[in-house]
Design a protein that fits this description.
The chain has seven helices and 18 strands. By secondary structure, the protein is α+β, with helices and mostly antiparallel strands. It folds into two domains: 187 residues, T-fold (Roll); 87 residues, ApbE-like superfamily (T-fold, Orthogonal Bundle), CATH 1.10.3980. The chain has a nine-stranded antiparallel β-sheet. Strands 17-10-9-18 form a four-stranded mixed β-sheet, with no helix packed on it. A hairpin with a 4-residue loop joins strand 1 and strand 2. The chain is globular and about 60 Å long. The protein starts with a strand and ends in a 7-residue tail after the last strand. Bound molecules: adenosine-5'-diphosphate (ADP) and magnesium ion (MG). The site of adenosine-5'-diphosphate (ADP) has 16 residues, from helix 6. Belongs to the ApbE family.
């Protein structure tokens, strides 16, 4: 684990950069109390590391791995924390009609995004690749908080929600320690609270999808999560059609039409899950869903580089990408894959 430290004595923002959950995390605490700031950052790192051990599906010792090993065999009693995360994930599956599904983890990776694909897989292959995905078959028992995956070969994974959950919990710990302002930035999944050291709101720069170095708009936020899904550089072209690396778990086909989706709401877990959901749902259905939800905003970029915004999104535009403040944090649309 490598970490780089930086402290800016003038504005009392203290920051650590390190790798957690396979992603680059930047954790910032704004405080006059330097010792407390560093302590809170360390506590946040410890919390995220703890969560990773519970939800990681590739760590054989995790409770999640135990659930997967026992698919089609028996139910597994897990900590209420993991149980409740799965309960919430299933709620998002219901909300999105299965566009979001943590049992996506069982997918057969028949789509290769490294240029090695010669043609499209057959319809049978595609159907078989997603045959084990169905959140209805994640059986939850609230009495003993046990989880049972009904079908052999089923798997759950938290790739599209775990980083957001961990960021939420990290922020909670820092707040409880008395840190009133900060940012947790998990590879572009941003979670802010409080205000910048100079008393202004956090400025989140949204990169122009056509030119990642230029900012096309700014969001002024307090307690908020800004999460982007989709990597617009990662797609394949087969028979003249573009396919993204995100697959619709209901059909087995890669989603078409969108380059990236950004969700803005106070809860990082929800933002994380909804970003993937809207990507799968596509422009019309995705935007319709977000416009029905109070306090959740969205903007997306389609594959023609056209932008769409949810009804109540308030962005500040700076046409030539002029930054309102130099220490603003930038979100890249289609940020690098982990
Ligand atoms: P990023 O890596 O940019 O944060 P996402 O938040 O969209 O991307 O999450 C990608 C992860 O989500 C992958 O680990 C993948 O296994 C998982 N995933 C992909 N599609 C779905 C889906 N429809 N429902 C739930 N999880 C998914
Ligand atoms: Mg996500």
């Amino acid at each position: 684990m490598s970490a780089s430290l930086s402290a800016n004595a003038q504005n009392h923002a203290h920051k650590k950069v390190l790798k957690l959950m396979g992603s680059r995390f930047e954790i910032t605490a704004v405080s006059d109390d330097e010792a407390l700031a560093w302590q809170s950052i360390d506590a946040c790192i410890e919390e995220i590391t703890r969560i990773e051990k519970v939800i990681s599906s590739w760590d054989e010792r995790s409770q999640t791995a135990a659930i997967n090993r026992n698919a089609g065999i028996k139910s597994v009693i897990v900590d209420p924390e993991l149980f409740n995360l799965i309960v919430r994930a299933k709620k998002i599956s219901n909300l999105t009609d299965g566009a979001f599904d943590v049992s996506y983890a069982s997918v057969d990776k028949i789509w290769k995004f490294d240029g090695s694909m010669q043609g499209l897989p057959s319809a049978e292959e595609v159907a078989a690749s997603v045959a084990k995905i169905d959140y209805h078959n994640i059986i939850l028992n609230a009495e003993d908080h046990s989880v049972f995956l009904k079908e052999k070969g089923m798997k759950i994974g938290f790739g599209a929600i775990g980083k957001g959950y961990a960021a939420n919990k990290g922020r909670e710990i820092m707040k409880a320690m008395g840190i009133t302002s900060g940012i947790v930035n998990a590879s572009g999944d941003l979670l802010t609270w409080g205000k910048e050291a100079d008393g202004s709101e956090w400025s989140i720069g949204i990169a122009d999808p056509k030119n990642k170095r230029s900012v096309m708009a700014w969001l002024a936020v307090g307690e908020m999560a800004v999460v982007t899904s989709g990597n617009y550089e990662k797609f394949i072209e087969v028979d003249g059609k573009r396919y993204s690396h995100i697959i619709d778990p209901r059909t087995g086909y890669p989603v078409q039409g969108l380059k990236s989706v950004t969700i803005i709401c106070p809860d990082a877990e929800l933002s994380d899950a909804l970003a993937t959901s809207v990507f799968v749902l596509g422009k019309e259905k995705g935007m319709a869903l977000i416009n029905q939800l109070n306090g959740i905003e969205c903007f997306l970029v389609d594959d023609k580089d056209e932008l769409s915004y949810s009804k109540n999104l308030k962005l500040n535009y700076y046409k030539n990408g002029v930054a309102p403040s130099t220490d603003a944090t930038q979100v890249n649309i289609g940020h690098e894959a982990n």
